[in-house]
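Good day; I would like, with your permission, to put a structural problem before you. A protein sequence and the structure tokens that stand for its backbone fold form the material at issue. I would ask you to consider whether the tokens describe a fold that such a sequence might reasonably adopt. I set the record out below, with my sincere thanks for your time.
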Amino acid sequence: MARTPGLSKQHIVQAAIDLLDEVGVEALTVRALAAKLDVQAPALYWHVRDKRELADEMATEIWRRVGADLDALPDEITWDAEMRAFARITRDHFLAHRDGARVFGGTQLTDVNVLRRQERQLARWREQGFALADIVRIVTLLHDFVLGFCIETQAVAQADDDQYSPTLRAERVGAKEHPLVAASGALIFGDPNERFEDLIDVLVDTAGRMRSL
């Protein structure tokens, strides 16, 4: 089949992100995307071979956007402020899309420029007292935490009942007999923004102990 005129990879990827927001990750298929674009599925195979490759392209586009936001940070930003910004920006982009964290987890970048833009960030942290090995550990920890946090946040938000209610949790476990378990529910299922910031503080504090300066 000939290449469909006007159907670019950029157009396909944005349409896939839009479709994700409409139907969720389970219903996001190459066939469904073709229907949204009003083309036959084989027309997409010039650009993406399957759903896995489509997810790679979608994730790469999201990381481009994350990178653009990080590049907008001031050059003189301190390491701790930049780590917090990295976590917040990444979280915002994951949560901006239905099942965002789920579809982007485990993907591979398809654009080497997304990797190259990290050079300035890595160099800045090394200049502020971190060994490269420790920077990688910190970035991995922040990334994996944000990814898992967003997956859990979106799962709770999409739940159809009040199973995550701290009050119901206390009733179910028996607050009098298990006061600590009951009280922990308010912390676990309280305001996700406050919980996120609290946990990021813990991670950044841990990172600070790795500095040699």
About this structure: The chain has two domains: 1-49, 65-208. The chain is about 65% helix and 0% strand.
